[in-house]
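ok trying this again, last paste got cut off
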Amino acid sequence: MKCLFCGAENADGNAWCTACGATLTENQRAENDSSEPEKAAADVAVKTKTEEATDSCQNGDSEPPKKKLAKNLVISVAVGAVALIAVIVLICAFSLDSTERAAVDNVSYMIYELGDDISLDSGSAIAKAEEAYAALPKKCQIRVDGYDKLQQARAAYDEKCVENTEKCIDTIGTVTMSDSVGVRIANARKSYDGLSDEQKAKVKNSDVLLDAEQKYAELKVADVEQKIKDIGEVSPEKDCKGKIDAAKTAYDALSNDMQKSVGNAADLESAVQNYRELTIAECIKRIDALGTVTASSEKEINEIKALYETLDEPYRGGVTNYAKLTQAEETLKKQKMSFKLGDTIKTSAWDLTLTKAKIAHSVYPNDTSGYYYYYTAGDGSDFIVLQFKVRNTGSYTMGMDDFVDSIFELEFLGKTVNKTATLYYDDDGWLHPVYSSDGIGSYDTWYINVCFSIPEETKNSDQPVTVTGKFAGQEKMIKLK
């Protein structure tokens, strides 16, 4: 049987052409029913089919259409399976575990907590929400509720920051040397510097801030220059030192750029150096002129010390005879502390007069004409006895032991020790220990003995014996020998 499409010969009974795959029964119908026009069309179809069959044969495709359909179906199923697997993989890849869901919920809640009223105080909360959002993986970020709200909050906050900075700049007003103007400029600068680059670009009056800073700097520089001019001739006087300090303080307060603009800065440094040299020389001269220290030396000693202390610490060593000044101070201190028989200390509470100062084995009352009571030191010991006439000048009772401190510094036998005093008051020939509950009535006068136990050999020693302590609130030294 001959195929009408490709012309190939086929065995009788074949259902389709072994060359082109055309159905042989269709070929027969086409042969029996076709008219001439149809035959012409069939010729074209035959030619086309022949070409396809030829190509198919050249490609080694000898399968029948049904087999090819089955093969295509298998391929489609395989592709579908791969696509299904890909979908499953994507679903698994973008699914969230409990920890990830909690993180998403946390960020969503942080955004919700921002609220609708964004203010200058919202910056920290917005930044934390943004940071938390950025830390999420992509599959979590797409599940965050309200991310657009977070973006809106950031935009609103940035706008408020810009508005606040513009207001700070507007408050600067007329630039003067006033400290309040300087504070307003500093606040505006701090607000502006706190903005991001994008925010700074939106500030409409930033040029006003720059102009104000420049004008203020010019005024500050001019003020420093005038202070330096006001120093005048340098001398080791307090007034000159004050002018130098004022100029130096104002100069040091300037920024580095502003300091470079001070035209007479070298004059300030020269004044500082000259004052230092003149003051050192003046201190040395006045210390050498002190001579013997007496009570009248106090004013001069204090003035020299004050002049010395105007020198900066590193340069005080230039006063090479300073040790002599410290010795004079110590001598004066001892003279002022000296408390001799008959001396009186007057305060708002007490009149205190030293009536006895001696070393003795026993302490006696003032009146020993009749019966009297006394105290004796132990074997091998003596007493340092200090007797005071004490008058309460206040309007209320004062404790007897209030007029002296309890601990004294004693010097004897070449050593210095701290000792506690024992107090006895004289009551018409009888000595009684003073207790904390004892008091001296208003405007009453008592004789009180302050006693210390010391070694017996102290009395015959040639070593100094002194008692230092506070009497009526004043530090005094009593020299017994």
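PB: full thing came through this time. Residues 96-204 form one domain.
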